[in-house]
Design goal:
This protein is an alpha/beta fold. The protein is built from 11 helices and 18 strands. Strand 14 and strand 15 form a beta hairpin. Helix 2 packs parallel to helix 7 and helix 2 packs across helix 10. The longest helix is centred in the N-terminal third of the chain and has 16 residues. The structure holds flavin-adenine dinucleotide and pyrrole-2-carboxylate. The site of flavin-adenine dinucleotide has 39 residues, from helix 2, strand 12 and strand 16.
Amino acid sequence: MQRYSGFGLVKHALSHHENWQRQWRNPTPKKEYDVIIVGGGGHGLATAYYLAKEHGITNVAVIEKGWLGGGNTARNTTIVRSNYLWDEAAALYEHSMKLWEGLSQDLNYNVMFSQRGVLNLGHTLQDMRDIQRRVNANRLNGIDSQVLDAKGVQELVPIMDCSKGARYPVMGASWQPRAGVARHDAVAWGFARGADARGVDILQQTEVTGFKILDGRIVGVHTNRGDIGAKTVGCVAAGNSGVLAKMAGFNLPLESHPLQALVSEPLKPILDTVVMSNHVHGYISQSDKGDLVIGAGIDGYLGYGQRGSYSTVEHTLQAIVEMFPIFSRVRMNRQWGGIVDTCPDACPILSATPVKGLFFNCGWGTGGFKATPGSGHVFAASLAKGEMHPIAAPFSIDRFHTGALVDEHGAAGVAH
Ligand code: FAD
Ligand code: PYC
């Protein structure tokens, strides 16, 4: 892998971006792989990276119908935190948080992980009771988490309206100092480059159109570039997971919804933490470029279009302006949507399936970016061993039969 010196960076900055090396190859698909990963988002690429790095399994292809990160990975608002209520979810997201903390070094690629802290606001007595309960649970699990009162919130974010006159006055918040943001496309590129360097084939513009199943066992996939054999297949296709499960002959309890985000014109640095409010339904941070990065809830209807409705944008911006009147005249630059795969208990599915050798990693809904390294890490271990890693095991599809749901609706940053 190439490392650039300071001189190298200056040279490339002045070179009109000519003669840059490719970060990964563009190989011709082999006839067969040991493992195929369907989906070249962050989770799929991380899975391939850890398969190669930690398990020495390098005869691997990542099959992506579009371009790397073109799904939810490079459409999300990059919030990373691990303050989930239940032990099972806390273990999964905190495992991820620990990997985030060393990720740029591990990948030798700057994913711009910035631990600027995340506030989850409370606006009612019940919000504050829920916050207290979740913070207690976090602390019992060794996760940094604090309850702040309104004064504490105002000290952290002086530009927010914390007055009693607000429609839903801020009563306090949970505060996770180690939480923050990361650069989403760099995460996809860093994992892709690391996987490719270890021999993984990354096949873009290649769509999986069906599965080859023999005597109840996976033996390969059909694609628009021909059939490819595989001993193990991991589907990591977010909003398209339900469609893939159907192709394999079973159903998953998922709904695919649009989720939107928008960014403003760039401003001078003014907001140095992440503020989320489920109650007034909006969240905001400021990117390193200066744009305000804003989002809210899912659009209520089901759909596979990577765009959302105007009414959701309007509602979101009302909430933001209510919390931050100072932003009322800021202009919005861009708006887009992704397709999020929501599960009934607001937790992911990391699971074997009725087809031997076929595994699914999906159902991350509105909150899977933060889990990217952790999800890839435990999913790779599960594919390598043929059985689910202990951190992944509680997220099996069996829970929808046994009733052992892990209800994280309260901790989901965005209601769904
Ligand atoms: P994706 O990145 O969607 O990758 C799946 C890939 O599979 C896609 O590239 C797709 O093209 C490919 N694929 C699908 N079908 C096929 C096929 N048949 N053949 C080949 N390839 C296929 N999470 C957070 O933690 N924090 C946030 O702040 C946050 N904000 C969000 C804001 C928005 C607007 C959105 C949309 C999501 C947000 N999320 C957030 C959720 C997060 O983005 C996702 O949970 C996460 O990125 C999922 O990653 P993934 O790799 O599983 O999926
Ligand atoms: O899960 O923290 C989250 C989140 C924030 C914005 C979208 N999801």
